[in-house]
């Protein structure tokens, strides 16, 4: 058994099957190349359901559904040769190790770590590398102000965002002089559907883009939660001139969190990079 080394810092993912590299974010776009299954691609940019990637010195678009999912270990974990605790260990991974999930078999995930493939028990993986019960969530769904203050949630900026996936509400807080959090806004939102759930954990705002989309829709005022997950508006047509899906309070997205246009714009315009986000 080897002690696996940390993965390179450049964002990368693996293809789940033979995948077309396309000239634009559209299934009807010209094909640049066919990327074989389990090939490593470098991520240039991401949106909710498409990635801009580089493979074999060629750059193009692939659907997010064709790529691995990023997870993190939250404790020392053994990478095993088969989905069983009795199988031989291949490598030892330290806490906060980033892995790419290729598939899930029952309670086990088939992952890639530092170009090594093996299985990890699902419970040992989270979206943010923190233990599943990092906070006391007693009041998360009933009194968000009490939750953030009793848990002493920390943010590098004066703002904190939380999203309650059960009630489908996003909250924005501002830090006051005594260090506590004051609720500024609470907005109904739309979250990921069961097959493409919204990630859970603690994250930090990591950039923004005025819009992204495909031939079928455009999402505006996108503030990045992590990777291809964003807070953004309800859906517009491809030209961005007309709202085509204004549903809120439902679980229908590909994982992003949709908000009313004015609410998504407020986050985009006012919440600084590195602001903390808690989603549960």
Automatic annotation (TrEMBL):
Domain L,D-TPase catalytic: 159-280
GO molecular function: transferase activity
Gene Ontology process terms (BP): cell wall organization; peptidoglycan biosynthetic process; regulation of cell shape
Pfam short name (any one): YkuD
Alphabetic keyword roster: Cell shape, Cell wall biogenesis/degradation, Peptidoglycan synthesis, Transferase
InterPro entries: Cell_Wall_Dynamics_Protein, LD_TPept_cat_dom, SH3-like_bac-type, SH3-like_dom_sf, Transpep_catalytic_dom
Highest taxon of the lineage: Bacteria
Protein name: SH3 domain-containing protein
Organism of origin: Holtiella tumoricola
